[in-house]
Specification:
single chain; 379 residues; alpha+beta; Rossmann fold; Elongation Factor Tu (Ef-tu), domain 3; seven-stranded antiparallel β-sheet; six-stranded antiparallel β-barrel
Length: 379
């Protein structure tokens, strides 16, 4: 990510200490091109033309953080699939990530064969053949494979060219009611700040459709859990957009494409530590339904993805806990009923989603949540 954007996206203390991505990271960069200098992220001469601004979401590759990766994939238009040239391909987590991309419907993929500086030419070609065999028959079958040394900044320009050629900017429907998927939420006030200078909580993510503007009244679903007359219920959160940031600049309105941040009038205590991650933002009265229970027709995979063994996927059982990823939300649920080809799940945390939204289904196998199938939100 550093070579492509010039920015470190791993900023969390544990990420820096352990050298892995744990939370979703973000970086925006402008891509340029000209006949003399080719593709790059810098304007090197007067003939270099800006191609577009690209927002990167750095999702974890580690197997224990698949839920975070699935949440991040909900706000992406394409994906860079990273494969190490000095390892056998595919690794279990690489299988899981490619299947996750298929499930969420991402069709535009560029494969990066990294660490070619650590292997011989023959070993790199063997690894290339392994990659081609692995992606055969998948959404990535025709994806370009770019040999790269990120450490030595080799072929970064080729990645940029491949992104420009194979991950097009999709058509956006600006006439629809705006819907934003929240991937992060946080408090930007420093400890000890003067109470009179405190600012409201910030929501970060991506706009799926429509246009959001400053000063608009918005609602956030599924909202928050409250106690009312001895019972618990979830209520939508209402607030107002104070300011909008995209591409590192303050703007009056935002359209789909790229990561955005909304400063709101929310109490910072409500948003800190990603408490609203997975939520959906829309105009007041225009949010999709909030679901506390779901009836699904699961499409189960033949084998468990992500484990070294070829473990067969057993039918879902009553009383079984499942992890579901819907849009940018990760939630857990218990199977409370079984019908023919259907399961009834009671959710621990409700989801805000349109009918037809895709759902990734994972089950606990050993000490890990493993991807085992998918379904759709239905009435």
């Amino acid at each position: 990510m550093l070579g492509l954007t010039g920015k470190w996206t791993d900023t969390h203390s544990e990420e820096v200490k352990r050298g892995i991505t744990i939370k979703l990271g973000y970086a925006d960069v402008d891509f340029y091109n000209c006949d003399e200098h080719g593709f790059g992220r810098e304007k090197k001469c007067s003939k270099c033309e800006k191609q577009r601004t690209v927002s990167f979401v750095d999702a974890p590759g580690h197997e224990t953080l698949m839920a975070t990766m699935l949440s991040g994939s909900a706000i992406m238009d394409g994906a860079l699939l990273l494969v190490a040239a000095n390892e056998e391909c595919p690794q279990p987590q690489t299988k899981e990530h490619l299947m996750a991309l298929e499930i969420v419907g991402l069709k535009h993929v560029v494969i990066i064969q990294n660490k070619v500086d650590l292997v011989t030419k023959e070993e790199a070609l063997k690894n290339y053949d392994q990659i081609k065999k692995f992606v055969s028959g998948t959404i990535a079958e025709s994806a370009p494979i770019i040999p790269v040394s990120a450490k030595h900044n080799i072929n970064i320009n080729c990645i940029i060219q491949a992104i420009e050629e194979f991950i097009p900017t999709p058509e956006r429907d600006l006439s629809k009611d705006p819907l934003m998927f929240v991937a992060r939420s946080f408090d930007v006030n420093k400890p000890g700040s003067d109470i009179s200078k405190l600012v409201g909580g910030v929501l970060g993510g991506a706009l799926k459709q429509g246009i959001l503007k400053t000063s608009e009244k918005i609602e956030i679903g599924p909202g928050r859990l409250v106690q009312e007359k001895g019972t618990e219920k979830w209520i939508l959160i209402s607030t107002e957009i104070v300011s909008l940031v995209t591409g590192g600049s303050y703007v009056e309105s935002v359209k789909p494409g790229g990561s955005i941040a909304l400063q709101t009038k929310l109490d910072p205590a409500i948003v800190k530590s990603d408490q609203l991650a997975g939520s959906v933002v829309g105009l007041a009265g225009k949010l999709p339904p909030v679901w506390t229970e779901l009836k699904l027709e699961p499409n189960l995979l033949e084998h468990v993805i992500g484990s070294k063994e070829e473990t067969k996927v057993d039918p879902i059982k009553k009383g079984e806990p499942l992890m579901l990823n819907v849009n940018a939300m990760t939630t857990a649920g218990i199977v409370v009923g079984l019908e023919k080809n259907k399961i009834h799940i009671k959710l621990k945390r409700p989801v805000c989603a349109e009918v037809g939204s895709k759902i990734a289904i994972s089950r606990r196998i050993g000490t890990r949540w493993r991807l085992v199938g998918w379904s759709f939100v239905k009435k």
